[in-house]
Write a structure and sequence with these properties.
- There is one protein chain.
- The chain is mainly beta.
- It has a domain at 23-153: Roll (SH3 type barrels), CATH 2.30.30.30.
- It contains two helices and ten strands, in the order αββββββββββα.
- It has helices spanning 6-12, 169-178; strands spanning 36-43, 52-57, 62-66, 76-78, 90-92, 101-103, 123-128, 133-136, 142-145, 150-153.
- Strands 5-10-6-7-8-9 form a six-stranded antiparallel beta sheet, with no helix packed on it. The protein has a four-stranded antiparallel beta sheet with strand order 3-2-1-4, with no helix packed on it.
- Strand 8 (133-136) and strand 9 (142-145) form a beta hairpin.
- The longest helix is centred in the last third of the chain and has 10 residues, at 169-178.
């Protein structure tokens, strides 16, 4: 009896595939109703690719912010419309000049930041109007935001992190396990026959056609969607005479 494909198993859900939020140091969101914050420590979090800054706000409350390049312990982060254009300061997009680099941009005013949060990335403010602000995201896509959406100024720290080689598969294994990613990805042809339609102990080219049925359910669409042509190659073979005849 066959088994579900790995895609079907993952789609079922369950605790195995939940994000391990217990590895996080806490929520990293832009603050509300704050005017300034003092950096008291720089930390790392297994749940985040960028370094985090532990800050103490003007009202005595502590929180976490994504650390930009150049931020150090003791720096004061200004928050609000009166914030200067400096590294780490937080302001609305309407108050940030065009051409400035920003990160942790809010998708909607007050959500705490959704875009450009990875290590070494930054977005750029392209143009502003009364209704929308156009921002160039790290993916080179342009997206318009509400002018009241806030963002931090500068570039996220930790740039160059993906450039370090893993060297051996064990390091890659632990890296992917910490992020709860499916790895390694095994091809269907390398599996056993009960694990995948393409599997089996014969050669790497099994006898089963690699064409997904038209009525295949979601998760079963493996192989080519449609063949280029079907059936036997028919036609008349043109023979050329030899010997000059």
């Amino acid at each position: 009896m066959g088994k579900n494909l790995i895609q079907q198993k993952r789609g079922k859900g369950g605790p195995t595939w939940r994000a391990n939020g217990f590895n996080s140091e806490g929520d990293v969101k832009l603050p509300h109703n704050k005017t300034s914050a003092t950096v008291i420590d720089l930390i790392t979090s297994r749940f985040h690719s960028a370094p985090l800054a532990t800050v103490k706000y003007n009202d005595g409350e502590e929180g976490l912010l994504i650390a930009p390049e150049g931020l150090k312990v003791g720096d004061v982060v200004q928050i609000g419309a009166t914030a200067d254009v400096a590294i780490g300061n937080i302001a609305s997009l309407k108050d940030i000049p065009e051409g400035a680099l920003v990160f942790n941009v809010e998708s909607n005013p007050g959500d705490g930041g959704k875009f450009a949060r990875g290590s070494g990335v930054a977005a750029r403010v392209l143009s502003k109007s009364q209704e929308r602000v156009l921002v160039l995201l790290p993916s080179k896509k342009q997206r318009s935001f509400h002018p009241e959406c806030r963002a931090s100024m500068g570039t996220v720290a930790g740039g160059g992190r993906p450039e370090k080689p893993f060297v051996k598969a064990g390091n890659m294994f632990h890296q992917m396990k910490s992020k709860n990613r499916y790895w390694p990805k095994v091809t269907g042809a390398a599996m056993n026959a009960l694990s995948h339609p393409f599997g089996g102990k014969r050669t790497s080219r099994k006898g089963r056609p690699t064409i997904a049925p038209k009525n295949a359910p979601p998760g079963r669409m493996v192989g080519m969607i449609r063949p280029r042509k079907t059936g036997r190659a028919r036609g008349t073979r043109v023979r050329t005479s030899s010997g000059g005849q």
